[in-house]
Design a protein that fits this description.
Largest sheet: 7 strands, mixed
Number of strands: 23
Oligomer: single chain
Helix content: 25-40%
Strand content: 15-25%
Distance between the termini: 34 Å
Bound molecules: flavin-adenine dinucleotide
Shape: globular
């Protein structure tokens, strides 16, 4: 085992850890970043699959995500807009397909009224929330005891309105069934993006992408950190006292004044803390779990839907792929569709053979875009559920009652141990923007503490 010494050691070379390391370096401190995988980026990963460049993890940037946008600009990366010309597609419970423009799905006048009313009520509740302090919402305790599904059932009898509003938060964001998370957790998801209306607006939420893929961000951050990033170094043990830490992998020991644990909270238990973390942390971390979604990539010789006047944007709470978008790469002549299969639907298709799953998912895409969707030249399913160093997608959220009970302590450091991750963020929660915000905030907190 080789022993190295640094001011700060960072566990995890995702967007949060690399941002923290970069900021600490700027403040004149020495750092080491230990990464379990043989690559940087964590949930950001661009790869070439059968000759197609695919963004296997996070990729979209929205206008409110100023921390991410600043980093993209500082790194000199270019962005491009998601293709959105033409009409979107909606499929209702009867399987009827309708083309539409704008944000509100083409539903009956009654259902539309219910949807607009629900969005407006949710916007009002979200406006009362500081995303960095959701537990301080005036109705936090009450709203954290009721599942989002039950809240919707109490708010309206219109099933289609409920299914659609649920889709924006459950299938599309927290990637858990709406009975499995609280209304407070749903409000946090919306507050983290500015408002519930923002979540409904796909042109806002899925606005831009980075040329070359969003993994360029962690790759360039890591390049600047150079030899201070250590790959294939899974941290097994953190020994700590008020005086400092000793962080151990299988072949490295890093001694430092502080440690930042920049891994998803579901992975904290993979590290042995010596002495153990306090009771509060040990309990709290058990109430956070990952959502689960399959991101499906289908590449075609041409973006055929465009010729048909379709944008590639599609939604249906009744379809296996509950949403789909044009995900064609910058400057690419081929066309790519991306679809998403979430939570229990994902469990369901993973009981099938790979071939049957593929057929089911492509059939769902063909319901939106026609027969041609059945025959992509490249097909790939991002399955983060099998990734040992992530264990789900997109991110972690609390179970019922967990946010009000534990939220305020989520980011509280324990002696020299600091926690930093998109899954702990307020603004930008569950997104790269939140990871960058957390990385900056943790670095600033550490620097301020060392100055005292
Ligand atoms: P991570 O990226 O998870 O980084 C943690 C790192 O720690 C990993 O590299 C991991 O290997 C490492 N690690 C774990 N345990 C250890 C250990 N014991 N020792 C050493 N290293 C360890 N966000 C958006 O903004 N826009 C999107 O369009 C978007 N889409 C997404 C699509 C998918 C399929 C997924 C999975 C995520 C998506 N996200 C999106 C979310 C976004 O990718 C994440 O919120 C963000 O990248 C998390 O960054 P992080 O640094 O907090 O955590």
């Amino acid at each position: 085992v080789s022993i190295i010494e640094r001011d700060i050691v960072i566990i995890g070379a995702g967007a949060a850890g690399l941002t923290a390391a970069t900021e600490l370096r700027k403040a004149g401190l020495t750092v080491a970043v230990l990464e379990a995988r043989d690559r940087v980026g964590g949930r950001l990963h661009t790869d070439e699959i059968d000759g197609a460049m695919l963004e296997i993890g996070g990729q979209w940037v929205s206008p409110d995500q100023d921390a991410l946008k600043e980093t993209i600009a500082e790194l000199g990366l270019e962005t491009f807009a998601r293709y959105r010309e033409g009409e979107s597609v909606y499929i209702n419970a009867e399987g009827e397909r309708t083309r539409f423009e704008g944000e509100i799905f083409p539903v009956s006048a009654d259902t539309e009224r219910e949807m607009v009313a629900l969005i407006s009520t949710l916007d009002e509740l979200v406006a009362q929330m500081d995303p960095d302090r959701p537990w301080a919402h005036p109705r936090a305790v009450e709203l954290d005891q009721i599942s989002f599904r039950r809240w919707l059932e109490e708010a309206t009898d219109d099933e289609e309105a409920r299914d659609n509003i649920s889709l924006f938060i459950a299938g599309a964001m927290l990637t858990k069934p709406a009975h499995a998370f609280s209304t407070l957790q749903a409000l946090l998801m919306a507050a983290s993006a500015g408002s519930f209306s923002n979540l409904v607006d796909a042109d806002f939420i899925l606005d831009e992408r980075v040329v070359g893929g969003l993994q360029r961000v962690p790759i360039l951050l890591a390049e600047k950190l150079g030899d201070d990033v250590f790959l294939s170094q899974a941290v097994r043990t953190v020994r700590w006292s008020e005086a400092g830490v000793s962080v151990l992998t299988d072949d490295l020991e890093v001694r430092a004044r502080r440690v930042i644990v920049a891994v998803p909270p579901v992975l904290y238990t993979r590290i042995s803390f010596d002495p153990p973390l306090p009771r509060r942390q040990q309990m709290m971390h058990q109430h956070l779990s990952m959502g689960f979604v399959i991101k499906v990539h289908a590449v075609y010789e041409t973006p055929f839907w465009r010729e048909d006047g379709l944008s590639g944007t599609a939604f249906s709470p009744y379809e296996l792929s509950h949403e789909a978008y044009d995900n064609t790469n910058f400057g690419d002549a081929r066309g790519t569709l991306v679809g998403f299969v979430s939570d229990e639907a994902a469990d369901g298709v993973f009981t099938m053979s790979a071939e049957e799953r593929k057929q089911r998912i492509l059939t769902s895409l063909s319901h939106y875009f026609g027969e041609k969707a059945l025959t992509p030249v490249v097909y790939y399913e991002s399955d983060w559920g099998t990734e040992e160093w992530t264990r789900g997608a997109y991110a972690a959220s609390f179970d019922l009652g967990g946010l009000a009970r534990f939220g305020a302590d989520l980011r509280t450091p324990v002696g020299p141990i600091f926690f930093s991750c998109s899954d702990l963020a307020g603004k930008g929660y569950q997104h790269v923007d939140g990871a960058i915000r957390m990385g900056r905030e943790t670095a600033a907190e550490i620097v301020a503490g060392l100055d005292q």
